[in-house]
Amino acid sequence: MRTPQNVLEGLGFAANSALGLGRGLQAELRAFVLEKIEQKFRKMDFVTREEYEELRLMVEELRHEQETRRTDR
Q: How far apart are CA 33 and CA 43, in angstroms?
């Protein structure tokens, strides 16, 4: 017959193993979800930061030009 100490050690070992398995599954799930999200973003047609900044500068120049023409009238 097992002593209570051996039973508790066995339960502790089983709980520790389950926690380790849970952490491993969590890491795998996180990696899977991140990969799927990245795949979806790659398929979308987003503007790059450089394209955005270039367009923003063009709009600022056009606004300035428009204001200059208004004041020249």
A: 16
